[in-house]
Amino acid sequence: MTSLKIGDKAPQFEAKDNAGNTIKLSDYEGKKLVLFFYPKASTPGCTNEACDLRDNYQTFLAKGYDVLGVSADSAKRQQNFINKNELPFPLLADEDKAVIEAFNVWGPKKFMGREYDGIHRTTFVIDEKGFIEDVITKVKTKAHAVQILE
To answer: What are φ and ψ of residue 147, in 5° steps?
Structure first.
């Protein structure tokens, strides 16, 4: 789905997170960032993915990575998702889809024979200088940390 590839400069973004803080890509300069896009907070696949990243969060930090999730959910829904699953990382409430569209992960999907537009579950690993180091489009929701760290 996304046209971004390894070696591309990651699109600059600025958006509010679950707590109303403004988060920008430049905030992560000098650190690696795992930027994961997911369709909807509190749905089974998204919960599996977020909890797998939560369970491996200390490993990410130890290897110099920060973790940031993005969906088009409201800040309130994102905060509920964090509270319910004790997620240690922020989630962007990208309701206007500015970040989602900048990373080109919005588009036609099929589910149970129905076609609709939505977020394609995609993870970008961004290096310390803002370049894309990995793009994962076939996310294994229950083993996503392993996909990223391998």
So the answer is: -60, -40
| 61-83 pLDDT tens trace | 999 999 999 999 999 999 999 99
For residues 82 and 113, give the distance between their C-alpha atoms in angstroms, rounded to a whole number. Answer: 31
The residue type of 101 is: E
Instruction: Give the β-pairing of 122-126 and 32-37.
Output: antiparallel
Asked whether 53 and 67 are in contact (CB, 8 A), the reply is yes
Query: Mean pLDDT score of the chain, rounded to an integer?
Result: 95
Exactly one of 10, 46, 99, 148 is catalytic; which is it? 46
Per-residue pLDDT tens digits for 24-38:
999 999 999 999 999
Q: Which two tokens stand for residue 58?
A: 């200390």
Helix (H, G, I), strand (E, B) or coil at 107: strand
* Residue 143 CB-half CA count within 13 A: 5
Tokens found for residue 125: 């690993």
Whole-prediction pTM:
0.95
Instruction: Please say if 51 is a catalytic residue.
Output: no
Tokens read off for 87 = 């997620």
